[in-house]
Design a protein that fits this description.
Elements: H1 17-21, H2 25-28, H3 63-75, H4 83-94, H5 99-111, H6 119-130, H7 135-147, H8 155-167, H9 171-183, H10 191-202, H11 207-219, H12 227-239
Helix pairs in contact: 3-4, 4-5, 5-6, 6-7, 7-8, 8-9, 9-10, 10-11, 11-12
């Protein structure tokens, strides 16, 4: 189906992703270790068999190994799945400053897996990881400040942590900042700033950002009106799976 500006109406703006994400923190940003295998960086040799490891890990192990063993227990990768044991291993590594373990421990507190549900404790661990430039922790902490979940609601802190993640190249954070500026949600409405953030995310092939750019070029919002550019960005958004752009 062809894509063209005439197909986009005022009602077809995407729903604000950052606001929707307030309700789905743990689903949006999964455990840091779940995308890979439990192996040492630069080696195909697996970690030692965790049998016999104490519930809270072993101080003889480097924090990176404690973290990866925690991932194995969380996933049930070669061992019986045990979220409580995973939490103990994450805690041991987190207390030694491992940012991935701090983030994952925060998620376990957020979801009440292997530990008692405690959103304030989740925010504390997210903060420790975020202060080490852990992007997912920065995003989750920003969302928690946006909702007032585990922390006092503070959109200035939301902006701070979204900006920290965006400046590290997070397309998701760039979209959140663009949406807040576009809608004047927690900040003064600034369409030029929104356009800049969406453009950064669109250059990473974010379909949501491409759709926003198409609409903004079509309407002349934050940028000079340009139907050809609008059509190009809407076509890209459609190619990347957004039906609204068709």
């Amino acid at each position: 189906m062809s894509t063209g500006p005439s197909r986009i109406s005022n009602s077809e703006l995407p729903r604000p992703a950052w606001a929707l994400a307030l309700c789905t923190l743990a689903i949006l940003l999964p455990l840091a270790g779940c995308g890979g295998t439990a192996q040492r960086a630069g080696s195909s040799r697996p970690f030692p068999d965790p049998a016999g490891t104490s519930l809270h890990g072993s101080s003889r192990q480097p924090p990176s190994e404690q973290f990866q063993l925690g991932v194995r227990y969380y996933k049930g990768d070669g061992v019986a799945k045990d979220s409580r044991r995973a939490a103990g291993l994450f805690r041991e590594a987190a207390e030694q400053g491992h940012a991935g373990a701090q983030y994952d421990l925060g998620l376990l507190y957020l979801k009440g897996e292997g530990v008692a549900l405690d959103h304030r404790e989740a925010s504390r661990w997210f903060r420790r990881a975020a202060e080490q430039d852990h992007i997912k922790a920065q995003l989750n902490l920003g969302l928690m400040y946006g909702k007032g979940d585990g922390v006092d609601k503070d959109l200035r802190e939301t902006l701070r942590w979204f900006r920290a993640a965006a400046e590290q190249g997070s397309a998701r954070a760039q979209i959140y900042l663009g949406e807040m500026a576009f809608r004047g949600d927690g900040v003064a409405k600034d369409l030029s700033a929104a356009f800049r953030w969406f453009l950064k995310a669109a250059r990473q092939e974010s379909a949501e950002a491409e759709l926003y750019l198409g609409i903004m070029y079509l309407r002349g919002q934050g940028v000079a009106k340009d139907p050809r550019q609008a059509a190009d960005w809407l076509r890209k958004a459609a190619e990347h799976g957004l039906p609204q752009a068709k």
